[in-house]
Write a structure and sequence with these properties.
alpha+beta, 2 domains, five-stranded antiparallel sheet, about 55% helix, rod-shaped, transmembrane, Sig_transdc_resp-reg_C-effctor, OmpR/PhoB-type domain-containing protein
């Protein structure tokens, strides 16, 4: 999804990409959960107590952690005027960013790169198997050639010995 045509959110990778600078920031999983929780409730008040229960399991010191998390998200989203994430004092927060649900560009690139890498590895594996098969064939034929050479040598030796032993015909 894209916020204000400026930030691409990839929740599965915990990444926020600034589309203008092409810089990507990886968030802590709980911080991404907070951002997604606010986005899911776009335009509605999300109470502090609900956020604390969902993300911090009612941990006693979570209020200060929530304040810091909201501050970090505002900095990340360049929300100095507090218009994207509105604070409702002592109540909660309301997300007002413009959200577009469009495919993530850099995720598509990485998927394409994955297919290219898989293709290259497949070609390498095939070349390796062909080379292995050729070397095995050559090895077998080399062994057969050596065996045939030994057999021929033995036969020649036998014939030569028989010639030596055989009486010579004199005419």
């Amino acid at each position: 999804m894209v916020i204000n045509k400026h930030f691409t959110i990839n929740a599965s990778r915990n990444e926020v990409l600034d589309n203008r600078t092409e810089k990507s920031v990886r968030l802590e999983p709980w911080l991404m959960k907070l951002l997604c929780l606010l986005i899911e409730n776009h335009g509605e008040i999300v109470e502090r107590s609900f956020i604390i229960k969902q993300l911090w399991n009612d941990y006693p010191g979570a209020g200060e952690g929530l304040n810091q998390a909201i501050s970090g998200l505002r900095k990340l989203l360049e929300d100095d005027q507090k218009k994207i994430i509105e604070t409702l004092p002592k109540t909660g927060y309301c997300f007002h960013g413009i959200i577009e649900d469009i495919p993530i560009k850099h995720q598509a690139r990485s998927l394409k790169a994955t297919y290219i890498m898989a293709g290259i590895l497949t070609v390498i594996a095939i070349l390796f198997l062909v080379r292995y098969y050729q070397s095995t064939e050559a090895s077998i034929s080399d062994r057969l050639s050596r065996k045939e050479a030994r057999d021929i040598s033995k036969i020649d030796s036998i014939h030569q010995a028989e010639r030596l032993k055989a009486p010579k015909n004199r005419k």
